[in-house]
Structure formats: structure tokens, C-alpha cells
Amino acid sequence: MPSLGALPILLPMPSFIRTTPEGEDRERLTCRDCGFVAYENPKIVVGSVVAVDGRVLLCRRAIEPRLGFWTLPAGYMEMGETVEEGAAREAWEEARARIRIEGVLAVYSIARIGQVQVIFRARLDEPGFEPGPESLEVGLFEWADIPWDGIAFPSVHWALRAWRDTAHAPLAAPALNPASDPRGTRPMQDLEVEG
After folding, report:
1. Where is each Nudix hydrolase domain found (predicted)?
2. 28 Cβ contact partners less than 8 Å away, ≥ 6 residues apart
3. How many structural domains compose the chain?
4. Where is 85: in which H helix or E strand?
């Protein structure tokens, strides 16, 4: 049995409230006791449209959200990595694919869920790919064979269209949200399905 000297000292948990701190223009999560502001910022998602001989690499999700739907190899950045390193890591984690990034294809703002997505155009750097732990299956798809009804997220539609429009040209300015959804607020069911 531990002695009293080894027992942890329990401190009261801070109590946070939503209020507009002095000098701010919006409500923030703020400690009621000391005034500390816990800023909530968007998450950064990085990924790639990986092309091989005019086909694109897609991953069928083994995790929620959208389990069983198709997506690009993409996910949240980790601390200490660049956006390029994050995109390469996600391609490895989801598709066991080693990729070579060609440049930024698109930057999307998904305001409804607090995300900024940086999508690269890439190609396989080494032959071969297979499902990683977050994918049920992976495959290369010709444009006409992409499972449009089974795409997981609106931004995957957008990125695939951006890739199609630039696949055989040098990269220029990245694509942005389409005019029909400039803030990334339309849910999946409101999207028109490609054909």
C-alpha cells in the first residue's frame, strides 16, 4: 500500500465556458477561473490524387466515417511533418503506396467540419500497392469506372475533377472549392453524381 507521501495531489479541473474574451470578435472556450483561451482551429487534411497510366488510385474505407465508401489516400496531418510528408505517409498507411508528389492540385475549405484540405497530384514512385489497415481494398480506376455513387466525401469529387482537368498539363494555381459550394457546407447527398 502506498504511503500518504506517494498519493497524487488532485487539483480541481478548470471550468471552461463559451464567452467573447476582451479584444476578441467571437465566442471562445475560456477558463472561467483564469481567463485562458482554448482556441479551436481547423484541422488540416492532406492527400493525393495518385495517377498511374491515366487511372487513379482509390481506397475503400475500413473506418468511419463513411466505412465502405471510396476515397483518395488522405488524412489528418501529424505534428512535426510537412504537408508533403503527411500526404506521402497517408498514401503508405492507406494503400501501401510509395508516391512522388508533383505539386499542389487543390486546396479546399470545408467550413462545416472545420477542415482545410491540401490535395496533391502524385504518381507511384515504386510499383505496387495494397490495402493498409484503414482500407478494405484499393484499386486503380479509369475515369468511366470510378464508383461515383460510392465516393465518400464531396471533396473527393472535387479533387478528381481537378485532376481530370489538369492531368495532362503542368500544374498551375490550385483548384479551390467549386462555385456551387464556396464554403464547403453542402453535405454529400446534395452533390450531383459524376457519370
Report:
1. 41-166
2. 18, 19, 20, 21, 37, 38, 39, 40
3. 1
4. helix 83-95
- Within 10 angstroms of residue 71's Cβ, the number of other Cβ atoms is 22
Taking the CA atoms of 95, 46, 151 and 144 in sequence, report the sign of the dihedral they define.
negative
- What is the spatial distance between Cα 47 and Cα 104, in angstroms, rounded to a whole number? 10
CATH code of the domain containing 126:
3.90.79.10
Asked whether residue 1 is domain-assigned, the answer is: no
Residue 191 in this model has a pLDDT that exceeds 90: no
Which run of H or of E encompasses 16? strand 16-19
pTM given for the model: 0.83
Residue 106's domain spans which residues?
Answer: 43-169
Q: How far apart are CA 160 and CA 181, in angstroms?
A: 16
The pairing of strands 99-110 and 115-124 is antiparallel
**Which residue's C-alpha cell is 490495402?**
131
Q: 161 φ, ψ to 5°?
A: -65, -40
Beta bridge partners of 139: 58
Find, among 81, 169, 153, the residue nearest to 117 by Cα. 153
C-alpha cell at 160: 478528381
**In 3D, which of 96, 56, 89 has the Cα closest to residue 74?**
89
